[in-house]
Amino acid sequence: MRCGGEALAAVREARHRLGLGPGDGYASAITFARSLGRAAEDLLHHERRLRQKEA
Length: 55
Known about the structure:
Blueprint: H1 2-20, H2 26-54
Helix pairs in contact: 1-2
């Protein structure tokens, strides 16, 4: 269940980042978009690991 716990942590982190919002200014918006991209990468990584375990 370790992978499931890591996936849940990645979901929580993504939701946290999303809740923070972009802040003020262009640089802040870029940083926010990058952090959401990293969160999405983490979630995809965990999805792939979970699918491999199912197979």
